[in-house]
Amino acid sequence: MAKEHFLELNNLYKYFDDVKAVDNISISIEAGELVSFIGPSGCGKTTLLRTIGGFHKQDSGEIILDGERIDNLSPEKRSTGMVFQNYALFPHMTVYENVAYGLKQKKIKRDRHEHIMTALEQVELGEHADRKPSELSGGQQQRVAIARCLVLKPKVLLLDEPLSNLDANLRLVLREEIRKIKDKLNLTVIFVTHDQEEAISISDRIAVLNGGSIQQLDKPDVIYNYPNNKFVSTFVGHANFLTGKIVMAEGRRCFDAGILRFPVDDSVSDTENEEFTVLIRPEQIKINEESSIKGTLTNAVYNGNFTRYFIQVGEQELMVDEFNPRDAINYQKGDHIGVELPSAPHTIHYTEF
Description:
CATH class of the largest domain: Alpha Beta
Helix content: 10-25%
CATH architecture of the largest domain: 3-Layer(aba) Sandwich
Number of domains: 2
Radius of gyration: 25 Å
Distance between the termini: 43 Å
CATH topology of the largest domain: Rossmann fold
Strand order of the largest sheet: 6-7-8-3-9-10
Number of helices: 8
Mean pLDDT: 90
Shape: elongated
């Protein structure tokens, strides 16, 4: 007998007039897993999240949670908890009262105080129960919104860009806190974000959406290193694309992209003289003065721990990321630089270009 997944989305469609916001999406999520939905504005990630939570009704398809079909249930009956982008806290209520609100709506009186304080302790806000939202930082407000969901013991926690209103440093801290809360409580979490770095750092798996459909669903390292198509490869991280073919040169297999020719191993296409495209991440290219491949530095962007160089090799501009040790060479515009390319670049099907 096949194993039942904890959350299943089967052939979901959602239209807004003639716009197909969710296009035949089918995925399975396991208990205790944190899955991020990422993609550009209008890709359908928030619509999909809100459909799971019951705030949108799908036009067809089904949603099954823990063996129960829930897509005909109202949001409060789905055993899901939603944290909205603006947190949706009641400004006239204290932190304690905000967390208590859901319990009151469900008329849960037994051990109410203990449930509220447990939820606040889980997000480390037990000492702030009597404060109003206006007396809290943005990060603390976000944790109140999470506590308000946790107190109802949801089976799935739905987070709609919960960090987007926070400054960069606080985002880093809070995404680690979300991960810790998830691991501590073994929560199943769906996390919507437009921030690729955020998704890579926090997720067990990532679903990359575009045009209402999932382009790829996989572990972060697979999404980054082995993208299914050009869209995924450019939306998650930066990329160099080289189009060429395999040739034999001096007894070695080489990828020949015109002025760029470099040795490759057997993992790259085994068909000689058939044109295809490879993906090379900027950090996979090394500056090597002894390399036979030479180019001219056209720009350098300092990013603290690394510098991104733009090197023109013939008609091809390469992005190259080099870490910045204290004794790093400070290359200048116009310098002639040797570059070494990887022997196992990832192949992207040529018809996508």
